[in-house]
Specification:
alpha/beta; Urease, subunit C, domain 1; TIM Barrel; 2 domains; 9-stranded mixed β-sheet; 18 strands
């Protein structure tokens, strides 16, 4: 009997992917810092960074000092916005990472994978071998029922195998092990999950003392902590313990949100993926979750609305793996954020400048300005008037390289 063999082609380069020098003309540049849009701008990209932005007539490119051999791209009056930052993903394959990139996500924060796949992919992308968004990696979750793979990667902690990781000593040991692998964030579960039929998303996992032990262990290495929490009690204790962000926060009260605002913590509400719970297909397709999602969706929207009113920093995220069955993109989260009362500009900041602040990458990404990394998207219409246009990204530039070009475009040409 013959065995069928399936060959999967990954978008991994055999040599580092080089940035392109670009001269982008006739661009309407969206400034997410001040909310303005400049007409007829020229953006020069050199060595993967934005070298200059000049506004004026179309012919201004003829008098600029442009990089030799740079390709020109005429946007023909289309809108140029910063590449998007997804604050919470579970991407663990090259194909899924490429799908995320093609939606306009140029940086993403991984909030959990097995066997530290996100660290490997982060380093491959940073070295230029993988066509993917820039990664921030978290590895495993610190949670009572630790993943089976964690003990395969850390047999030195076999004494905890088969039992729940509880108590300050145990959570410190698990946190230290994860930090030792070079993560950018530590993620812990302050409450149970919402995406499993048998779990109770309100149920608290860890005490404030255990959460504080996790934060102290991570902070000693300069690593921030993100806490998954749906229930109010678990979220409040995580904030008291000093976490940098709450992931989801579905049932958080106004009192807890007020505490977040006082402490400068971020909330990553992931509203769109809760909407996914309520419909067939997508990342979740289960009757129990369908019922749960219909209850959770108005609650998480209410929480996000309260967070916005109270001045809590909100970051946009999908909580998806960008797999072949995924139906949620970051654009859907931005639409949800506008739906809870944010302006299109505020929603766009949640996926650019505010997310960059959460990531600790402000001054590198999240805006269009000289010296920043050239992560850019091109849109047909003004996203500050219609955030829904982000569903249809016409071009993606990642680290100064054009990776997506959709629609009818004139050929690029070297600058003479």
């Amino acid at each position: 009997m013959k065995t069928a063999v399936t060959v999967i082609l990954l978008t991994v380069a055999t040599a580092p992917i080089a940035a392109q020098d670009l001269v982008i003309t006739n661009a309407r540049v969206v400034d997410v810092n001040d909310g303005t849009v400049s007409d007829s701008a020229v953006v020069i990209v050199e060595d993967g960074r934005i070298a200059a932005i000049v506004t004026g007539e179309t012919g201004v490119v003829d008098i600029l000092d442009t990089p030799e051999g740079a390709a020109t791209i005429d946007l023909m009056g289309r809108y140029l916005a910063p590449g998007l930052l997804d604050g919470h993903v579970h991407v663990s394959t090259a194909a899924d990472a490429r799908r995320a990139l093609h939606t306009g996500v140029t940086t993403m924060r991984s909030m959990g994978t097995s066997h530290y796949v996100d660290i490997g992919m982060r380093d491959l992308q940073a070295a230029g071998y993988l066509e993917a968004p820039q990664y921030l990696a978290a590895g495993y979750h610190v949670r009572p029922p630790a993943a089976e793979g964690f003990f395969q990667d850390h047999p030195e902690l076999g004494r905890m195998y088969g039992s729940e990781v509880r108590g300050e000593e145990a959570v410190r040991a698990m946190t230290a092990a994860i930090v030792s692998r070079g993560v950018d964030f530590v993620k812990t579960n302050a409450t149970e999950r919402a995406g499993l039929p048998e779990t109770d998303p309100r149920k608290q996992f860890y005490s404030v003392a255990e959460l504080r032990a996790i934060v102290e262990e991570a902070s000693a290495a300069g690593i921030p902590v993100a806490a998954h929490a749906h229930g109010d009690g678990g979220a409040r204790d995580a904030i008291e313990a000093g976490v940098r962000s709450i992931e989801h926060g579905t049932y958080m009260s106004r009192e807890t949100l007020t505490l977040m605002a006082e402490k400068g913590a971020f909330v990553v509400p992931t509203i769109a993926i809760v909407s996914d719970l309520t419909i067939p297909g997508g990342d979740y397709d289960n009757a129990v979750l369908n019922v749960r999602g219909r209850h959770m969706l108005p609650r998480v929207r209410e929480m996000a609305r309260n967070a916005h009113e109270l001045g809590v920093k909100i970051v946009a995220a999908t909580d998806t793996g960008y797999g072949p069955e995924s139906t949620t993109t970051l654009a859907h989260e931005l639409i949800e954020l506008v739906g809870i009362g944010m302006t299109p500009l505020e929603a766009l900041r949640a996926a650019t400048t505010t997310a960059a602040e959460l990531f600790g990458l402000e001054g590198r990404i999240g805006a269009i300005a000289p010296g920043l990394e050239a992560d850019l998207i091109v849109l047909e219409r003004n996203p500050l008037e219609d955030i829904g246009v982000v569903q249809d990204v016409l071009m993606v530039v990642s680290d100064g390289r054009v990776v997506v070009r959709r629609g009818d475009w004139p050929d690029t040409r070297p600058v003479s």
